[in-house]
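In the current project phase, the collection of sequences with tokenised folds has grown. A representative record is quoted in full directly below:
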Amino acid sequence: MKMTKLLIMAMTLFGFCALATLTHPVFSPVSVAGAAEDWPALKLKKPAKLHASASAASTVTEIVWKNEICIWLDKRDVWVKVRMKKNGHVGWIHQSYLAPAITTATVAK
């Protein structure tokens, strides 16, 4: 329990993007157009809360706005782990807020 609190404090202090890049190469920045083959691009249908973990009770790290683009990283039950295109922040969003994004790669096909 104490370790979890320390990890959340460290992630808040250093930012999710910086910490994720140090711990796992999958979190390195990608463009939405280039991500179409590797990771599905998603778009917010309405404003949503970006959570620290896959739970409504978890800490809200930021509010993300309608039409923002994110990249699908993982899924647990009804929660989708995403990386926000705009700032690289990583967190969990309820699947009901997400829709497929139309990217330049999708339009070109």
